[in-house]
Amino acid sequence: MMRAxxxxxxxxxxxxxxxxxxxxxxxxxxxAFLSYHGNRFVDRxxxxxxxxxxxxxxxxxxHPGDPSTVVSHPGATYGGMVHHGRLRGGRMLQALNSALxxxxxxxxxxxxxxxxxxxxxxxxxxxxxxxxxxxGAARYRxxxxxxxxLQYRLPVSExxxxxxxxxxxxxxxxxxxxxxxxxxxxxxADNLERNHDAAxxxxxxxxxxxxxxxxxHIEVMTAQVDGSVEAGIVLFLGQTVAHAQYIASSExxxxxxxxxxxxxxxxxxxxxxxxxxxxxxxxxEEHGRILNEGLAQFKNEFGAGGIVYEHYEMNLxxxxxxx
Length: 323
Fold this sequence. Notes:
The chain is of the alpha+beta class. It has 2 domains: 2-142 and 310-315, Gcn5-related N-acetyltransferase (GNAT) (Aminopeptidase, 3-Layer(aba) Sandwich); 152-275, Aminopeptidase (3-Layer(aba) Sandwich), CATH 3.40.630. The chain is built from 10 helices and 16 strands. The strands form 3 sheets. It has a 10-stranded mixed sheet with strand order 4-5-7-16-8-13-12-11-10-9. Strands 1-2-3-6 form a 4-stranded antiparallel sheet, with helices on both faces. Helix 3 packs across helix 4 (127-134). 43% of the residues are buried.
C-alpha cells in the first residue's frame, strides 16, 4: 500500500542517496543543499513509500510569508517529485494524491509546485505535471529562460562574435575556481543594484559554504582586465545542465565585452564536460509577466532558444485528488 509521510531528520542520509541518480533530481534536491538555509523554513518535505521501499520524494516547506501554503521548495529554483522510474503513469497519480492528502491533513490550504524543467531530467519524467492537471492545479507563473542545446546549437550572432574578438584584443584573461568568489561578489552586488535595484539571493558567505559543500556542482568562471576581476559567472552543474546561476560584469568589463569571451569559454567547457544543455537562466520579472527583451536577446545571440520554468498552484481543500 502506497503512503506519504513527512520527512524526518533521520532520513537525511537515505534521502540524499535516493536523490542521487533519480529522474529529474539535482543537487538542489539534496538535504545537504536544503539544510544550508538552517531554520529559515519550516520543512514539509514528503517521502512516498510502499512498506519500507521509497518510491519518490518531494522537497517542500511552509511558505515563509503564508503559513497556510506549502511550497516545493521556497529555498530552491525548482523542487518537484523525483523518483527512479517507479512512479510512471497511474502510480504517479496515486503518489501525488497521497502527498496532497498529507499536506491537507496537516492544515495546509494551498500548494505551490515548482516543476523541474525537462532539461534537468535524465530521462522523460513529467508524469507529475499530468497528475497536477488531474488534481485541478493551474499554472500561475511561467519564467522564460534561454538555453543552448549543445548538440544542436543555433547560430551565434555576428554581434557576439565581434564582442569576443574585442575582448581578445583587450587581453581579457579567463580564470576558473571558487577562490575568485570574494573578488566577484562586489562586482555582482554592484551589477544587480545598478541594473535591477536588487541584491544577490546568496550572501558571499552562503555561496562560499555551498561551493565548499558541492565542489563538483558549483563552478566559478571570471574574466580579468589588467589583473582585476571585472566579470564572472557562477555555474550550478547538474548531470545534463550547466546553469548560469549568477552573471555579472562591471562597467570596465562591459567596455571590453568581457562577457562575450567569458560565455564562449563557459559554453566550450560545458561541451568538454559532457553536458547536454547550457542554461543562461530566466529573463523575466514579476512572476513571468514582464520579459526583459534586451537581456533575452543578449543570451539568445549565443545560440540559445527558450525553455520555461513552470509553477503550479492548487487549493488543497477543494481539489487534491488526481482522479
